[in-house]
Design brief:
Elements lengths: L1 H18 L5 H29 L5 H29 L5 H31 L1 H28 L4 H21 L7 H27 L6 H20 L1
Helix pairs in contact: 1-5, 1-6, 2-5, 2-7, 2-8, 3-4, 3-7, 4-5, 4-6, 4-7, 5-6
Length: 238
């Protein structure tokens, strides 16, 4: 039931972005950047700390994974961009490829959301409900972020919707996988650390500069802060 609700929650977040075309996209970029930073620090990182405290992984390895992930996506971003400029002068092929890579990362995170729900319910019903509610509320921003990165890459409405649909479906696959596969706490800590590095890159190094590229304002700054506050509220009070 909870996984089905996450499907509609993710879909609602993405459709909200697609249907509000009259709002300037830069505000969605700024908000999504804040949401990704919030997810990294208030949602994923506390889970990593809990795993570290249980001795599941080495602190240096986990922190190193965050840095490696950030640098990996930075190098990938620059490599694709440079190759695109040389191969397609004036084209946007590289930008679209970058958008797809970011969307894949967000969908992978949603897959782990489903794994989290499934694993929690295997442990106990009460824990499953708590984790399920947290995922439901923050998956709205996941859908918004997926659509935003595709729009930022220059995608039209239909391709952006297909990626949104993929992001909405992946939690179901993740939850179903818990009946077949088991992720050790050590592996989970490394995966979560990788997502932190990726999301920090997307939010701070990609979406924020894009939002302020054509002029900055207090409204844009507030949109970013609002994205952070939304995730903080969801993770702390819901």
């Amino acid at each position: 039931m909870f996984v089905a609700v996450t499907f509609f929650s993710t879909l609602a977040g993405g459709l909200f972005t697609l249907k509000n075309g009259r709002l300037q996209v830069k505000y969605f970029f700024a908000f999504a950047a804040g949401a990704l930073l919030g997810v990294s620090f208030f949602d994923i990182f506390p889970e990593i700390i809990a795993l570290l405290q249980s001795g599941a992984a080495d602190t240096t390895v986990v922190l190193g994974t965050i840095v490696v992930a950030f640098l990996f996506f930075h190098v990938l971003d620059r490599t694709i961009t440079i190759h695109s400029i040389r191969s397609h002068p004036g084209g946007d092929t590289g930008k679209m490829t970058n958008g797809r890579i970011r969307a894949v990362g967000l969908c992978s995170h949603s897959l782990l959301d489903g794994v989290a729900i499934g694993t929690a319910f295997h442990i106990g019903f009460a824990l499953g409900v708590i984790v399920g509610l947290a995922v439901v509320f923050h998956d709205f921003s996941d859908g918004l972020n997926t659509v935003t990165v595709m729009l930022r890459a220059g995608a039209k409405t239909r391709p952006a919707f297909y990626w949104l649909l993929t992001d909405a479906i992946t939690p179901m696959i993740g939850a179903a996988s818990t009946f077949l596969l088991f992720l050790s706490d050590g592996v989970l800590a490394i995966l979560l650390a990788f997502f932190v590095g990726e999301f920090l890159f997307i939010g701070a190094a990609d979406l924020l500069p894009e939002a302020h590229e054509r002029g900055t304002s207090f409204r844009l700054v507030f949109a970013t802060i609002l994205g952070v506050l939304l995730i903080f509220t969801v993770t702390r009070f819901l």
